[in-house]
Amino acid sequence: MKYRILVIALLMFSSAHAADKGNWTGKNKPLKDATYLVYAGEPGDRGLPTKSDRKLAISIKGQAAKEIFEGLGGPDADVSCSLQEGERLRSKGEVWCSYTPQEGYICSLGFDLKTGQPHTGASC
Question: What are phi and psi of 74, to 5 degrees?
Answer without folding.
Answer: -100, 180
